[in-house]
């Protein structure tokens, strides 16, 4: 659910962005029908996920949530971290967030025919509700958490997670800031290998 982070970490390469965005909707190694750059974006997404899951700061963030949410703690942290990226966007990019997300939506809509079916179904809701831009607002994060909770038929209790975000806001933001710097360095190395 850290859609904005994955897009941002693809650099300015449109095909890497597409691959990085669709990767959660691709099963296993069924990627050969995509061009080489999109395949590399899918692989980059998986490298980011592996790096993130193993990072000590991310694990510290998850521990604040684990007792209440168990194995959903990672999904919640993804959402929280995208919130902090959107909120602090000007630190990480010279392109204003509203302009950046419009270019992303345009790119995805232009390439809609090659996107996996699940991504095609997600895209209209994402663009109409302007998820990527609205991640910066806690009340919009609440809507995201409500939606995920609904998809888990209430089992995840994620609809309550904005309470945890508010209570530990500064700690989560500090975690994000430190972790994201490490993640950016890691991705820069990966991007250099791709080129």
Percentage of residues assigned to helices: over 70%
Rg calc: 16 Å
General form: globular
Number of beta-strand segments: 0
Distance between the termini: 26 Å
Overall mean pLDDT score?
A: 96
Give an overview in words.
- The chain is globular, with a radius of gyration of 16 Å.
- It contains twelve helices and no strands.
- Helices cover 74% and strands 0% of the residues.
- Helix 3 (36-54) packs antiparallel against helix 12, helix 4 (56-69) crosses helix 5 (73-87) and helix 5 crosses helix 12 (169-194).
- It has 195 residues and is mainly alpha-helical.
- The mean pLDDT is 96.
Keywords, please?
single chain, 0% strand, 195 residues, 12 helices, mainly alpha
Q: How are the SSEs ordered, and which strands pair?
A:
Elements: H1 3-8, H2 14-22, H3 36-54, H4 56-69, H5 73-87, H6 89-92, H7 97-110, H8 117-128, H9 131-134, H10 138-151, H11 161-167, H12 169-194
Helix pairs in contact: 2-3, 3-12, 4-5, 4-12, 5-10, 5-12
């Amino acid at each position: 659910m850290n859609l904005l982070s994955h897009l941002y970490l693809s650099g300015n390469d449109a095909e890497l962005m597409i691959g990085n965005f669709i990767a959660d909707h691709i099963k296993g190694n069924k990627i050969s029908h995509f061009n080489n750059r999109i395949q590399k974006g899918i692989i980059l997404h998986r490298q980011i996920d592996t790096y993130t899951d193993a990072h000590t700061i991310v694990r510290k963030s998850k521990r604040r949530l684990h007792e209440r949410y168990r194995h959903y703690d990672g999904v919640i942290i993804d959402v929280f971290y995208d919130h902090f990226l959107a909120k602090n966007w000007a630190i990480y990019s010279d392109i204003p967030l509203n302009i950046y997300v419009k270019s992303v939506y345009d790119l995805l809509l232009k390439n809609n025919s090659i996107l996996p079916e699940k991504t095609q179904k997600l895209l209209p809701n994402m663009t109409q509700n302007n998820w990527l831009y609205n991640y910066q607002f806690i009340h919009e994060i609440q809507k995201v958490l409500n939606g995920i909770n609904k998809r888990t038929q209430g089992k995840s209790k994620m609809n309550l997670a904005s309470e945890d975000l508010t209570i530990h806001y500064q700690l989560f933001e500090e975690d994000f800031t430190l972790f994201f710097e490490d993640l950016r360095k890691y991705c820069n190395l990966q991007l250099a290998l791709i080129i």
